[in-house]
Amino acid sequence: MKQRVFSGIQPSNVIHIGNYIGAVRRWVASQNDPDKENIFCIVDLHALTVPQDPTELRERTLDLLALFLAVGLDPDKSILFVQSHVPVHAEGAWLLNCITPIGWLNKMTQFKDKSSKQETILAGLLDYPVLMAADILFYDTHEVPVGEDQKQHVELTRNIAERFNHHYGETFIVPEPMIAASGARIMGLDDPSAKMSKSSGAVKGHAVNLLDDPKVIERSIMRAKTDSGSDIRFSKDPVKAGVNNLLTIYQALTGKTQEAVETDFANARGYGDLKKAVAEVVISVTEPIRVQHRAIIADRGELERLMQLGAEKARSISEPRLQDVKQKMGLLLPQ
Ligand code: AMP
Ligand code: TRP
Fold first, then answer.
1. Cα separation of the two ends of the chain
2. Which of 117, 227, 266, 298 is the most buried (most CB within 10 A)?
3. Residues 162, 164, 170, 176: is their CA dihedral positive or negative?
4. Strand partners, 145
5. Which atom of ligand 1 is nearest the CA belonging to 187?
6. Right CATH number for 3-183+300-328 from 3.40.50.620, 3.30.70.60, 1.10.10.10, 3.60.20.40?
């Protein structure tokens, strides 16, 4: 039996190389694996859990679909859709809310993190992982390829699935988080002690965004924070976090082993050489994506058509599962 793969990404801010290395790039690989059936979702309902500008959110949703296509996700091979186009997600989240203890949500580190930055904490932000559980569970998902920061949310999803199955009988598949051994947590270029994040994406020199101009990319990487030494090696030492991060980016994008990467820099004359090489690799990966994206975003009609097609396919999988869950929970289904 094919393994069903489901993952999602928010249309908030721009997509950076952390998102690409930790998630999206791996989705493209999964799409080309004949043993997998892949579903990738633009999670616009999740984006609403923090304040958004309505016009910008709509633009970024289309932009992200164009980016999906530009990186090589193929609507003939994978199901690509927008979360709010399939009502199962919101409805399923409500049903799962009614079996999820609130104590589980209070423990989520991402909630603690994000809520500490908000003036008003919206109920949706606390509930965010339950919506994510609905995304995953109503598609009978086996594998969830995400970056390290989403591991806790997938574990919560597993707990919700097990609790439901225990109360109402075997219903949901208990999914596995798929976290890459390397590159699952790319750090900020300006501060390698904190992960590269979309919310800091506007801060100059923090992230490399996939659609950045090559000159901007070069500047950000050349200014990346390192240390006062000159040793170019993978290292867990917090002092070397900047160099380690640059090497990790280089390794992820070249597909080389750690040893091969260190050999590449054995004769480097300092961090300048390392940064130049990293900038080159990053630009060689992002530039074709940027060019593709520009062409794709211009054809709005085609994007609309693909969104509709993706939503129909997604609905045909998740709708029957929703009916089953409603029936099990005691809701009277209209005949
Ligand atoms: P988000 O930006 O929260 O929508 O995340 C989209 C995907 O990118 C998720 O699978 C995250 O785990 C992953 N991701 C986000 N930031 C990073 C990062 N700095 N390094 C690696 N993966 C990341
Ligand atoms: N919460 C995820 C993030 O911010 C995005 C997401 C929403 C997701 N639903 C999902 C990821 C389902 C995997 C599966 O990165």
1. 33
2. 227
3. negative
4. 178
5. 19
6. 3.40.50.620
Pocket flag, ligand 2, residue 150 (CB < 6 Å): yes
Distance 64 CA to ligand 2 centre (A): 14
Per-domain residue ranges for the chain? 3-183+300-328, 214-295
What pLDDT is attached to residue 274? 97
The DSSP annotation for 45-60 comes to: HHHTTS---HHHHHHH
DSSP structural state of residue 238: G
- The pLDDT value recorded for residue 201 is 64
Q: Which parts of the chain sit beneath pLDDT 50? A: none
* Residues 5, 143 contacting (CB under 8 angstroms): yes
Calculate how far, in angstroms, residue 266's C-alpha sits from the geometric centre of ligand 1. 31
Give the count of beta carbons closer than 10 Å to the beta carbon of residue 283.
Answer: 18
Q: What angle do CA 70, 195, 56 make, to 5 degrees?
A: 50
List the catalytic residues: 114, 195, 198
Instruction: Output b/e per residue, 50-64; b: 16+ Cβ within 10 A.
Output: bebeeeeeeebbbbb
3-state DSSP percent of the chain in helix, strand and coil, to 5: 55, 10, 35
Confidence (pLDDT) at 320: 98
10 Cβ inside 6 Å of ligand 2: yes
